[in-house]
Design a protein that fits this description.
The chain is α+β, with helices and mostly antiparallel strands and 352 residues long. 40% of the residues lie in helices and 17% in strands.
């Protein structure tokens, strides 16, 4: 039987912030990064939560991530175009700056695009399109990443997980409408979570080193590859993300010799009010939400939800009951704490 440990969100955020400061991150930046990681855990996306502190610490140690760097907007010469230099700072800081900058520009021009260069891992892509949507704008984002995904019909790692995300404005006080997913059949971080819990994975997610289907996450880390979701459709989306986000940012295609190892990212924002009345738009969204909720469930389903609502419900539950961390993740974090003279996490054990 696998087991997890439960940590309160407040404890986890405070602990993560303290560790980030020890690693050389200024206090205000540490608060943003810690808040983003814990929010991912609250939403149930443990793959993008505090477990990321372990690879982040290694990136800092090797000099690939500069914890004290400050991202900057370096190009605003065109009304609807923004270029952000991440300076190899924490990607969460770069992404927040870019999301706010592209939203500011779109509010003036109707639509805008932000290109993020030298951008480290930003966490959940959906966090930033949701931030844009909270201002009454529609947001779209996509990114490329290091090669872990085989192309449709192939077995070699040529593409990244290359996620994309959408968000639309909703009525105040309602759950966000956010779509956020990798163009691979699963994110690498989700494999790591399953591996840490000693769990197998569903069929159709990975190939082993010999190109054969596998349900053992260890096979991916032993030279296998992720598969694209939806066959040729996910492959096509992932390839376009690699081309546009990789080449337009200067990051490079993930399988090219020029790839710089960061995450080429593009944000797009549309001012809904430039095209239709915003209040009428959000009213129509809420009517659609009602129709979705009232639709008949299929066999075995407990009901139909809007995209973004499962995470919102998970957040509600975890705020009340604490955040479950895989035992392996908790042990890794405690090991990191010991190296940096930080007390271990205060947690309770729970059987799964």
């Amino acid at each position: 039987m696998s087991h997890s440990v439960v940590v309160s969100p407040e404890e986890l955020r405070s602990w993560a912030e303290a560790l980030l400061c020890i690693l050389g991150t200024p206090q205000d930046g540490a608060a943003v990064v810690a808040g983003s990681l814990v929010e991912s855990d609250l939403r149930g996306h443990d793959s993008h939560g505090v477990r990321r502190l372990v690879p982040y610490a290694q990136l800092i140690k090797t000099g690939r991530l500069d914890p004290a760097a400050v991202p900057l907007v370096i190009e605003e010469s065109r009304p609807s175009a923004v270029v952000v230099d991440g300076a190899n700072a924490f990607g969460q800081l770069t992404a927040r700056l870019a999301a706010d900058a592209v939203a500011d520009r779109a509010a003036k021009t109707g639509a805008a695009v932000a290109v993020l260069r030298r951008c480290q891992h930003i966490g959940r892509l959906g966090e930033y399109v949701e931030r844009i949507a909270e201002r009454g704008l529609a947001g779209y984002a996509f990114a490329n990443a290091d090669s872990t995904v085989a192309p449709w019909g192939g077995r070699d790692r040529l593409l990244g997980t290359n996620p994309l995300a959408w968000a639309a404005p909703v009525a105040a006080g309602t759950a966000p409408l956010v779509v956020d997913f990798a163009t691979s059949a699963t994110a690498e971080g989700k494999l790591a979570v399953s591996r840490g819990r000693g769990q197998s994975i569903p069929e159709g997610l990975i190939l082993d080193a010999e190109g054969k289907p596998s349900t053992n996450p260890d096979d991916f880390y032993a030279g296998g590859a992720l598969l694209p979701f939806g066959g040729h459709k996910g492959y096509g989306l992932g390839l376009m993300a690699d081309v546009l986000a990789g080449l337009m940012t200067g990051t490079g295609s993930a399988s090219s010799r020029g790839y710089d190892g960061t995450f080429g990212t593009i944000f797009v924002a549309f001012e809904v009010g430039a095209f239709v009345d915003l209040s009428e738009f959000t009213s129509e969204v809420e009517q659609l939400r009602e129709r979705v909720h009232d639709s008949s469930p299929s066999e075995g389903s407990s009901g139909v939800l809007f995209p973004g609502e499962p995470e919102w419900l998970t957040r509600r539950d975890r705020l009340a009951g604490g955040i479950p961390l895989a035992a392996g993740t908790a042990d890794e974090l405690d090991g990191l704490a010991a190296v940096h003279d930080l007390p271990p996490l205060n947690r309770t054990r729970r059987e799964n």
